[in-house]
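Reviewer comment 2.1 asked that we show a complete input and output for one of the modelled complexes. We chose the magnesium ion case, as it is the one discussed in the main text.
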Amino acid sequence: MTEHGLQTIHQRESALLAPYAMFSLSSAGRQHREPEHAYRSPFQRDRDRIVHSAAYRRLSGKMQVFTGDMGDYHRTRLTHTQEVASIARTMGRALRLNEDLVEALALFHDIGHPPFGHAGEDALAECLADDGGFSHNQYALTIAEQLETRHQSFPGLNLTKETLEGQATRVDKAAGNHHPLLEAQVVEAADSMTYDAHDVDDALKLGLVTLEEVHDQEMIKICVAIIADRRSDLGPAEYKRALIHTMVDCQVSNVLENAGPFLQTVGWQSTEDVRNSDYRIATVGELADAKKEMEAFLYERVYRHPELVKTRERAQAQIHKLFETFMNNPKAMPERFLSRIEHVGLHRSVGDYIAGMTDRFFEQQYLGFVGS
Ligand code: MG
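Response of the prediction step:
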């Protein structure tokens, strides 16, 4: 106990976490040393720093898949992030992982998204093609290590090595030389479950696909069978809600029913054992196949829907133009991006400035500097 009679973080974690979880006491710490907090774990502090960052607040003004012009029902990048955190914490808690680290990683995972979602990312990657490209996962690290400030003596949020490492494993998944901690793996699994479900929900609401078309998908057939087993008296709105809810619920159950027994029997005693294994927490079996099919359907019918293609092309052309404008007139950027030029070069500094913008701020800047 602490002098104020509080349970220490270590006491709490020893009672709750599995041996393969990331314990606060085993953290490799922060780049810039800071004293421990009296009652918040290092990962809780990471979470709090992320929540209080400007980049996190800006997620409310960044589109997930559908723009702000299309209505106010669908997810923004912020509400997507909150759904991911909620689902990842459910899995993390059930598997006795470090829930604070899970939450920090979930709230952090999309913080580097530029305006206009993947369209914006692709356009910035083209603008920066000769300078190392652009990846929203990498840019999240730039935000956390360079662009945000919370202390005058060093740049960045000074997050723990584990939070930064968890995000770094997202940058180059194909490289295969990083084996993420289980806390990062549940966030990865939760991310795709979340967008599969909410993109179906949003696309139905926006009328981009019909319920009949969705019913042809194996994933939905599985969900319909589960719902029919439980309830038979649902009205249309309740039925649709149940479908979306069941999409998440059956995937979470699938993951836990498989990862749970695996982790029980494999006998891992530390995060070292996790890091030495290429095991990944994910949806498995028939449901995993159904998930792949669902994602192909979403790609074809939703992400490549003519209405979204139109928005995508417009956003990309505008990003190219605004990028060019700041390249020709860097002084139009705020001082902190102007002074970054000598450290990271003109291209990167312009890219970093644009990437941080919300959709609305981008449009204002475009109108101001390029015109309508
Ligand atoms: Mg995401």
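Residues 80, 84, 109-110, 191 surround magnesium ion (CB under 6 Å). We note this here for comparison with the apo prediction described in Section 3.2.
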